[in-house]
Amino acid sequence: MTTRMNKVIANQTITADGYAAGRNQTEERPFGEDGGDGWGDQLHAWMFDARAENQAEVDQINTAAAVIMGRNMFGPVRGAWDREWNGWWGDDPPFHAPVYVLTHHAREPQPMKGGTTYHFVTDGIESALARARAAAGDGDISIHGGADTINQYLAASLVDELRLHIVPLTLGAGARLFEGVPPLRLEQVTARAARSVLHVTYRVLPGRTDPTH
Predict the structure, then answer these.
(1) What stretches of the chain show up as alpha helix (H) in DSSP?
(2) CB 3.0-4.6 Å disulfide test: which of 46, 50, 55, 87 passes with 197?
(3) 67 close to 144: Cβ distance less than 8 angstroms
(4) pLDDT band at residue 211, thresholds of 50, 70 and 90?
(5) Torsion angle of alpha carbons 41, 42, 47, 49, nearest 10°?
(6) For residue range 7-57, what is the model confidence (pLDDT) as tens digits?
């Protein structure tokens, strides 16, 4: 059995009822009906409005040597690339590492300022992970979301660690973490409560739980 030198870490902010975004996501409201302005102002207040209190967790997210994300997290363009779009994060994205974007439509790599290059992967989650591993060396790989992308990796048993940032908000519907994912065995590694968020890290253990017991 081959020993993994790096960890595959899924990072996700969710509501208390497990949603990473609300219903009806659009370009004007990327997080949909999210209890706020549609841009995640309530979901991600811990990261921006209370950044000093949560700086350790923000820094931890940004240490990844390679990043994987779904196309919805990259931008609002659907179908063929019929217009220029270089991501929600501007000319100097915060990743400073190669980013592998899952998509059904091929596109040439897009270099950005600060060391980020977007690579567009059309042949599935395992191919994206293999490319991220090759780029990361011994560094960790972060699956940045959204929920559907993380769910695919969880269902395929490809995640080593799950870092959740749980905010005191419920949405009742939308893009939900663990949707369609078989029961998992998790080991709690850390937990820290801040004023506006609970940070919990789980190790994803091998094997599945038996939902009948």
Answers:
(1) 45-48, 55-61, 71-74, 125-136, 147-155
(2) 46
(3) yes
(4) low
(5) 80
(6) 999 999 999 999 999 999 988 899 999 999 999 999 999 999 999 999 999
CB atoms within 10 A of CB 57: 20
Q: Provide the 10 A C-beta neighbour count for residue 49.
A: 13
38, 114, 47: which is closest to 76 by C-alpha? Answer: 38
> At which residue do the structure tokens 């059904």 appear?
104
User: 3-state class of 106 per DSSP?
Assistant: coil
DSSP assignment of 170-211: --SSSEETTTTPPPEEEEEEEEEE-SS-EEEEEEEEEEE--T
Q: Nearest-CA neighbor of 61 among 144, 167, 125?
A: 144
CA atoms lying within 13 Å on the CB side of residue 32: 17
Burial class (CB in 10 A: 0-12, 13-18, 19+), 41: middle
Give the phi and the psi of residue 119 in degrees, each rounded to 5: -115, 135
pTM: 0.92
**Burial, 208: exposed, middle or buried (Cβ in 10 Å; 0-12, 13-18, 19+)?**
exposed
CB 37, CB 169: distance < 8 Å = no
Tokens 């030198």, residue located: 5
Instruction: Give the residue carrying structure tokens 């609300």.
Output: 22
